[in-house]
Amino acid sequence: MRYTMVLVPFVLMACEGSGGVFVTSNGVRVNPVNADVFEVLARPAGRASDFWCGAGHYARRALDAPDTALVYVVGGAGPGVTANTPDAAQFSLNLPSEVSGATGRAASWGPDVGAATTVGQARRSCRDLATSSDD
């Protein structure tokens, strides 16, 4: 009984910490910003394709968007607003002019604000963790 009392708080903390975090099969994390915007967090030594990978998988699996739907960049790579990370980009299924709460910032690397692709094409941009090139 003593062990059960010790484990319960750890189990609850693990469940609490995982709320809202979405992770693709290759480790790209995505967090919702608000009802219109979600943020893809770059992995250490990440590639620009990781942003599209996370956006496509999140749009399909979490938002139930069809592969033919467009996903738009609404905030270029820069400091995250949902996590303490130096590189996060924001996306939406809505036109950039129709969303609120996005950074709208230009990026020094990664996808450009206003760029768009289909959910299916974004999902196909995923690379395995062992892949080192971005082509």
Task: Walk across the major sheet and give the strand order.
Answer: 1-2-3-5-4-6
Low-confidence stretches: 1-18, 130-135
The rounded Rg comes to 16 Å
How many DSSP-defined strands? 6
The mean pLDDT is 82
Give the DSSP E fraction (strand runs of 2 or more residues).
15-25%
> Helical stretch count?
3
Instruction: Give the N-terminus to C-terminus distance in angstroms.
Output: 55 Å
Shape descriptor reads: globular
Order of H and E elements: HEEEHEEEH
Helical content band:
25-40%
Overview of the structural elements:
- By secondary structure, the chain is α+β, with helices and mostly antiparallel strands.
- It has helices at residues 2-17, 48-62, 119-123, and strands at residues 22-23, 29-32, 38-41, 70-78, 88-92, 116-118.
- The longest helix has 16 residues, at 2-17.
- The radius of gyration is 16 Å and the shape is globular.
Task: Give a quick rundown of the structure.
It contains three helices and six strands. The protein has 135 residues and is α+β, with helices and mostly antiparallel strands.
Walk me through the topology.
Blueprint: H1 2-17, E1 22-23, E2 29-32, E3 38-41, H2 48-62, E4 70-78, E5 88-92, E6 116-118, H3 119-123
Antiparallel strand pairs: 1-2, 2-3, 3-5, 4-5, 4-6
